């Protein structure tokens, strides 16, 4: 008999602690540690990043819930109180990113730092958090793909028993899409760690590379899922997305959709990829990305600027360019 993993890790009296929360909390902390470690190279105090997490994490949760409810409004319009019951499930990563980025932008600018420089430092931590966080979906048996054979999971993917057994849901085995995305994010983490030591990387480009990499992987994995947020769109949008996903159809059938014909995560992913590429080109041409990733990070606030006048370890110290401290972080 197949036994699925209990999503509840332990109970403290009437309070049940779920693996999902433990994994997401661990993901956030590990991402924070990566950020703090990199921030030390730029002489930025760890308290700055801890405050950033304390502001960004709740903003991400609120954004994730608003995003989900907005695209599933038909489920909540007649019962508004249910929209606030996040413990009943229903969050979306794109909404979390929107909420976190808005909060981080406000906080970082208030501290006098260029937003793009801090965003670059945060990129590896973000993708690490997503890589680990997907295992929370595994524990809950959610965010999975369409049905597959047990042979595919055991002999083709060579997955261990605990994953194969957990993917047996409602009488059938399913694509472990959580695992596909987690492995993709691991590869993305390695890419970002390599790129951030390259002299050609300009301010903001590591952050935008994170968005491009994540969106490419999410686009193809999303097509396998059976729980996608969706809407009914025009035929040309449907045809365009199907064309882009067609290489996957050589090997796999797309996941069933309960409603709509356009997966929102796929459409948003394509928009993000195009927007990120355009931003890289425009920011370089207009001179908004003259600073490089390895350049010192200087706050425009006098109280914050003092400890940041040293160059990061392994780089040469040089005079800042004229106007560098006034560089707009949101360009």
Task: Please characterize this protein's 3D structure.
The chain is mostly helical and 331 residues long. It has one domain. 56% of the residues lie in helices and 6% in strands. The protein is built from 11 helices and 7 strands. Strand 4 and strand 5 form a beta hairpin. The longest helix has 26 residues. The chain is globular. It starts with 7 loop residues before the first strand and ends in a 26-residue tail after the last helix. Belongs to the Lgt family.
Tell how many strands the DSSP assignment holds.
7
Tally of contiguous helical segments: 11
List the secondary-structure elements in sequence, H or E.
EEHHHHEHHEEHHEHEHH
Tell me the overall shape: globular
Secondary-structure class = mainly alpha
Q: How helix-rich are the residues, as a percent range?
A: 55-70%
Please mark out the parts with pLDDT under 50 across 5 or more consecutive residues, or reply none.
304-331
Pfam families: LGT
Region (Disordered): 302-331
Family: Belongs to the Lgt family.
Binding site for a 1,2-diacyl-sn-glycero-3-phospho-(1'-sn-glycerol): 134
Provide the descriptors you would attach to this structure in a database record:
331 residues, 3-stranded antiparallel sheet, two-stranded antiparallel ribbon, 7 strands, mainly alpha, single chain, disordered C terminus
Detail the topology: elements first, then pairings.
Elements: E1 8-12, E2 15-18, H1 19-41, H2 46-71, H3 93-110, H4 115-140, E3 147-148, H5 150-156, H6 161-166, E4 168-169, E5 172-174, H7 177-195, H8 205-222, E6 230-231, H9 235-249, E7 262-263, H10 264-285, H11 302-305
Helix pairs in contact: 1-2, 1-4, 2-3, 4-7, 4-8, 7-8, 8-10
């Amino acid at each position: 008999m197949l036994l699925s993993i209990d999503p509840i890790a332990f109970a403290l009296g009437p309070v049940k602690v779920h693996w999902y929360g433990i994994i997401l909390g661990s993901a956030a902390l590990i991402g924070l540690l990566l950020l703090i470690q990199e921030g030390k190279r730029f002489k930025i105090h760890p308290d700055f990043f801890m405050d950033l997490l304390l502001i960004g994490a709740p903003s991400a949760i609120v954004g994730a819930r608003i995003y989900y409810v907005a695209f599933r409004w038909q489920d909540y319009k007649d019962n508004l109180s249910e929209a606030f019951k996040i413990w009943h499930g229903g969050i979306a990563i794109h909404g979390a990113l929107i909420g976190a980025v808005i909060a981080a932008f406000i906080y970082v600018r208030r501290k006098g730092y260029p937003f793009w420089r801090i965003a670059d430092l945060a990129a590896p931590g973000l993708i690490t958090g997503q890589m680990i966080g997907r295992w929370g979906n595994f524990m809950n048996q959610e965010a999975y793909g369409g049905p597959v054979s047990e042979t595919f999971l055991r002999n083709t993917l060579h997955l261990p028993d605990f994953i194969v057994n957990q993917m047996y849901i409602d009488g059938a085995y399913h694509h472990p899409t959580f695992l596909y995305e987690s492995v993709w994010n691991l590869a993305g983490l390695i890419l970002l760690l390599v790129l951030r030591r390259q002299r050609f990387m300009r301010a903001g480009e590591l952050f935008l590379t994170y968005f491009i990499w994540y969106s490419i992987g999410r686009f193809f994995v999303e097509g396998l899922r059976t729980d996608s947020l969706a809407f009914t769109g025009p035929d040309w949008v449907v045809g365009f997305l199907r064309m882009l996903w067609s290489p996957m159809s050589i090997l796999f059938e797309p996941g069933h959709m309960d409603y709509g014909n356009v997966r929102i995560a796929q459409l948003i992913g394509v928009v993000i990829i195009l927007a990120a590429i355009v931003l890289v080109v425009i920011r370089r041409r207009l001179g908004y990305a003259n600073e490089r990733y390895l350049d010192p990070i200087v706050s425009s606030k006098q109280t914050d600027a003092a400890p940041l006048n040293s160059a990061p370890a392994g780089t040469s110290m040089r005079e800042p360019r004229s106007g560098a401290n006034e560089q707009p972080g949101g360009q």
